Amino acid sequence: MAKKDCGNHGSYYRHKLYRRIFAFFLTLIILILFIILVIWLVLRPTKPKFLLQDTSIYQLNLTSGTNLLSSNLQITIYSRNPNDRIGIYYDRLDVFAKYKNEQITVATGLPTGYQGHNDVSIWSPFLSGIAVPLSPYIVDAIGEDENAGFILIYIKIAGRLRWKVGSWISDHYHIDVSCPAFFTVDRGNGGLTAFRFQRMTTCTVDV
Description:
Elements: H1 2-42, E1 49-62, E2 68-80, E3 87-99, E4 102-103, E5 108-109, E6 113-115, E7 120-123, E8 126-133, H2 136-148, E9 150-165, E10 168-169, E11 173-187, E12 193-197, E13 201-202, E14 204-206
Antiparallel strand pairs: 1-2, 1-13, 2-7, 2-8, 3-4, 3-5, 3-6, 3-9, 9-10, 9-11, 11-12, 11-14
Protein backbone atom coordinates (compact mmCIF):
# COMPACT_ATOMS: atom_id res chain seq x y z
CA MET A 1 0.00 0.00 0.00
CA ALA A 2 2.85 2.36 0.85
CA LYS A 3 4.41 1.83 -2.55
CA LYS A 4 1.12 2.65 -4.24
CA ASP A 5 0.77 5.85 -2.21
CA CYS A 6 4.30 6.88 -3.18
CA GLY A 7 3.45 6.33 -6.83
CA ASN A 8 0.33 8.47 -6.54
CA HIS A 9 2.26 11.21 -4.78
CA GLY A 10 4.95 11.14 -7.47
CA SER A 11 2.35 11.41 -10.23
CA TYR A 12 0.65 14.28 -8.38
CA TYR A 13 3.88 16.24 -8.02
CA ARG A 14 4.79 15.67 -11.69
CA HIS A 15 1.41 17.01 -12.83
CA LYS A 16 1.82 19.96 -10.48
CA LEU A 17 5.29 20.65 -11.90
CA TYR A 18 3.98 20.44 -15.50
CA ARG A 19 1.19 22.88 -14.65
CA ARG A 20 3.69 25.32 -13.15
CA ILE A 21 5.98 25.06 -16.21
CA PHE A 22 3.00 25.56 -18.53
CA ALA A 23 1.78 28.56 -16.49
CA PHE A 24 5.28 30.06 -16.56
CA PHE A 25 5.64 29.83 -20.34
CA LEU A 26 2.08 31.05 -20.88
CA THR A 27 2.76 34.06 -18.64
CA LEU A 28 6.03 34.72 -20.48
CA ILE A 29 4.31 34.63 -23.88
CA ILE A 30 1.54 36.97 -22.68
CA LEU A 31 4.16 39.35 -21.25
CA ILE A 32 6.12 39.41 -24.51
CA LEU A 33 2.95 40.06 -26.54
CA PHE A 34 1.97 42.80 -24.10
CA ILE A 35 5.38 44.48 -24.46
CA ILE A 36 5.12 44.32 -28.25
CA LEU A 37 1.62 45.83 -28.07
CA VAL A 38 2.80 48.66 -25.81
CA ILE A 39 5.74 49.42 -28.12
CA TRP A 40 3.41 49.36 -31.12
CA LEU A 41 0.96 51.74 -29.47
CA VAL A 42 3.72 54.12 -28.37
CA LEU A 43 5.39 54.04 -31.79
CA ARG A 44 2.18 53.79 -33.77
CA PRO A 45 3.20 54.38 -37.39
CA THR A 46 1.94 57.35 -39.33
CA LYS A 47 0.94 56.58 -42.91
CA PRO A 48 3.44 57.67 -45.57
CA LYS A 49 2.72 60.97 -47.32
CA PHE A 50 2.28 61.03 -51.10
CA LEU A 51 2.09 64.05 -53.40
CA LEU A 52 1.46 64.17 -57.14
CA GLN A 53 3.95 66.81 -58.20
CA ASP A 54 3.45 66.76 -61.96
CA THR A 55 1.71 64.92 -64.77
CA SER A 56 2.22 65.28 -68.51
CA ILE A 57 -0.22 63.79 -71.01
CA TYR A 58 1.51 63.09 -74.32
CA GLN A 59 -1.35 61.09 -75.80
CA LEU A 60 -5.03 60.60 -74.99
CA ASN A 61 -6.68 59.49 -78.21
CA LEU A 62 -9.82 57.54 -78.97
CA THR A 63 -9.64 55.39 -82.08
CA SER A 64 -12.23 56.66 -84.54
CA GLY A 65 -15.41 54.60 -84.61
CA THR A 66 -14.40 52.44 -81.65
CA ASN A 67 -14.32 52.52 -77.85
CA LEU A 68 -10.55 52.03 -77.75
CA LEU A 69 -8.36 54.54 -75.93
CA SER A 70 -4.61 54.93 -76.31
CA SER A 71 -2.76 57.03 -73.74
CA ASN A 72 0.76 57.96 -72.73
CA LEU A 73 1.55 59.90 -69.54
CA GLN A 74 4.52 60.71 -67.36
CA ILE A 75 3.98 61.43 -63.68
CA THR A 76 6.15 62.60 -60.80
CA ILE A 77 5.26 61.15 -57.40
CA TYR A 78 6.75 62.34 -54.11
CA SER A 79 6.69 60.05 -51.07
CA ARG A 80 7.90 60.77 -47.52
CA ASN A 81 8.08 58.61 -44.42
CA PRO A 82 6.91 60.99 -41.63
CA ASN A 83 7.90 58.67 -38.77
CA ASP A 84 10.87 59.50 -36.52
CA ARG A 85 11.47 55.93 -35.28
CA ILE A 86 9.75 53.68 -37.82
CA GLY A 87 11.11 52.66 -41.22
CA ILE A 88 9.09 51.38 -44.17
CA TYR A 89 9.85 48.50 -46.51
CA TYR A 90 8.00 48.91 -49.82
CA ASP A 91 7.76 45.36 -51.15
CA ARG A 92 5.53 46.14 -54.13
CA LEU A 93 4.19 49.35 -55.68
CA ASP A 94 2.14 49.32 -58.89
CA VAL A 95 1.02 52.63 -60.40
CA PHE A 96 -1.64 53.16 -63.08
CA ALA A 97 -4.15 55.76 -64.28
CA LYS A 98 -7.93 55.65 -63.98
CA TYR A 99 -10.65 57.75 -65.52
CA LYS A 100 -14.22 57.55 -64.17
CA ASN A 101 -13.25 54.40 -62.20
CA GLU A 102 -11.96 52.61 -65.31
CA GLN A 103 -8.26 51.76 -65.63
CA ILE A 104 -6.83 53.35 -68.78
CA THR A 105 -3.16 52.33 -68.50
CA VAL A 106 -1.35 49.15 -67.61
CA ALA A 107 0.23 48.94 -64.16
CA THR A 108 3.87 50.04 -63.95
CA GLY A 109 6.07 48.84 -61.10
CA LEU A 110 7.84 51.48 -59.00
CA PRO A 111 11.27 50.82 -57.43
CA THR A 112 10.90 49.02 -54.11
CA GLY A 113 13.12 49.00 -51.05
CA TYR A 114 13.59 50.59 -47.65
CA GLN A 115 12.53 54.14 -46.77
CA GLY A 116 14.16 55.31 -43.55
CA HIS A 117 12.96 57.75 -40.92
CA ASN A 118 11.76 60.98 -42.59
CA ASP A 119 13.32 59.87 -45.89
CA VAL A 120 11.93 61.07 -49.22
CA SER A 121 11.52 59.14 -52.48
CA ILE A 122 10.63 60.64 -55.88
CA TRP A 123 9.57 58.56 -58.87
CA SER A 124 8.86 59.68 -62.45
CA PRO A 125 7.47 56.68 -64.35
CA PHE A 126 5.75 56.58 -67.73
CA LEU A 127 2.22 55.16 -67.87
CA SER A 128 0.74 53.91 -71.11
CA GLY A 129 -2.21 52.03 -72.49
CA ILE A 130 -2.67 50.92 -76.09
CA ALA A 131 -6.17 50.37 -77.49
CA VAL A 132 -7.74 49.94 -74.06
CA PRO A 133 -11.47 49.09 -74.41
CA LEU A 134 -13.79 51.49 -72.60
CA SER A 135 -17.47 51.49 -71.74
CA PRO A 136 -19.57 53.62 -74.13
CA TYR A 137 -20.49 56.08 -71.37
CA ILE A 138 -16.77 56.60 -70.62
CA VAL A 139 -16.16 57.49 -74.26
CA ASP A 140 -19.00 60.03 -74.11
CA ALA A 141 -17.65 61.44 -70.83
CA ILE A 142 -14.19 62.03 -72.31
CA GLY A 143 -15.72 63.97 -75.20
CA GLU A 144 -17.88 66.03 -72.85
CA ASP A 145 -14.93 66.85 -70.58
CA GLU A 146 -12.72 67.87 -73.48
CA ASN A 147 -15.47 70.12 -74.84
CA ALA A 148 -15.90 71.65 -71.38
CA GLY A 149 -12.16 72.36 -71.24
CA PHE A 150 -11.11 70.28 -68.26
CA ILE A 151 -10.54 66.64 -67.37
CA LEU A 152 -9.83 64.77 -64.13
CA ILE A 153 -7.68 61.63 -64.09
CA TYR A 154 -6.73 59.67 -60.99
CA ILE A 155 -3.26 58.25 -60.48
CA LYS A 156 -3.48 55.11 -58.37
CA ILE A 157 -0.81 53.18 -56.49
CA ALA A 158 -1.46 49.73 -55.02
CA GLY A 159 1.04 47.56 -53.22
CA ARG A 160 2.35 46.10 -49.98
CA LEU A 161 4.60 47.44 -47.24
CA ARG A 162 6.11 46.43 -43.89
CA TRP A 163 6.95 48.56 -40.85
CA LYS A 164 10.38 48.34 -39.18
CA VAL A 165 10.87 49.24 -35.51
CA GLY A 166 14.44 48.59 -34.41
CA SER A 167 15.17 45.02 -35.47
CA TRP A 168 11.47 44.06 -35.50
CA ILE A 169 9.70 43.94 -38.87
CA SER A 170 5.91 43.66 -39.17
CA ASP A 171 3.84 41.48 -41.45
CA HIS A 172 2.72 42.81 -44.82
CA TYR A 173 0.13 45.58 -45.03
CA HIS A 174 -1.72 46.67 -48.15
CA ILE A 175 -1.28 50.26 -49.27
CA ASP A 176 -3.64 52.10 -51.63
CA VAL A 177 -2.86 55.62 -52.84
CA SER A 178 -5.16 57.86 -54.88
CA CYS A 179 -3.97 61.12 -56.46
CA PRO A 180 -6.28 63.46 -58.42
CA ALA A 181 -4.74 65.06 -61.50
CA PHE A 182 -6.60 68.09 -62.86
CA PHE A 183 -6.00 69.24 -66.45
CA THR A 184 -7.25 72.05 -68.62
CA VAL A 185 -7.87 71.11 -72.24
CA ASP A 186 -6.86 73.41 -75.08
CA ARG A 187 -7.77 72.50 -78.66
CA GLY A 188 -5.44 74.36 -80.99
CA ASN A 189 -6.16 75.60 -84.48
CA GLY A 190 -4.22 72.69 -85.95
CA GLY A 191 -6.53 70.16 -84.33
CA LEU A 192 -4.01 69.20 -81.65
CA THR A 193 -5.29 68.91 -78.09
CA ALA A 194 -3.03 70.11 -75.26
CA PHE A 195 -3.53 68.98 -71.66
CA ARG A 196 -2.06 71.24 -68.99
CA PHE A 197 -1.57 69.95 -65.46
CA GLN A 198 -2.97 72.53 -63.03
CA ARG A 199 -1.35 72.02 -59.63
CA MET A 200 0.42 69.67 -57.27
CA THR A 201 -2.12 67.64 -55.30
CA THR A 202 -2.09 65.71 -52.03
CA CYS A 203 -2.90 62.02 -52.34
CA THR A 204 -5.12 60.00 -50.03
CA VAL A 205 -3.37 57.00 -48.48
CA ASP A 206 -5.01 53.90 -46.98
CA VAL A 207 -2.92 51.29 -45.16
